[in-house]
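dumping this here before i forget
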Amino acid sequence: MPERTASKLRTRDLTLIALFTALMAACAWITVPVPAPFIQFTMQTFAVFAALLTLGGKRGTYAVTAYLLLGAVGAPVFSNFRGGLGVLLGNTGGYILGFFITALLYWFMTAKLGESFPVKVAAGVLGLAAVYAFGTAWYLALYARTGSPVGLMTALGYCVFPFIFPDLVKLGLAALLAQKVGKYVQ
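structure:
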């Protein structure tokens, strides 16, 4: 009888994916209020990095996908206990959808270059840059359609520059967590 080569998700995998999906929701609810027009700080990015660095590319991508799908169908998993397509199609939706790009990029890089710590961190940094690029392009496109376009530097000033250092700190914290917890979930 031929041996099966397709990998299946075990109950343990599904449980870990669900756990990190819930962590993303809980971390999205942890916000630091900032004055308008700036986008508020959340711990959502930390949870995305934690899922990817701890679970690996495949299971981490599944957790991010589950999180986005829960939010898309209306579960209040995004910041301020919001959910639904309106959030994903709104001003900050590009940043949230960018998490999926981050996950795919992380999965691709670690599959091709290995699971070493430097590769994982580099994949996280490039994923963060992808979130910023996709989210900012989305933000600019939405404002252009409303008739009150925003310049690139203004959008970067509102949506990217204030977040670079905190997001890199979140990536570092997620890397530390993954090193401590990762050996128990592999």
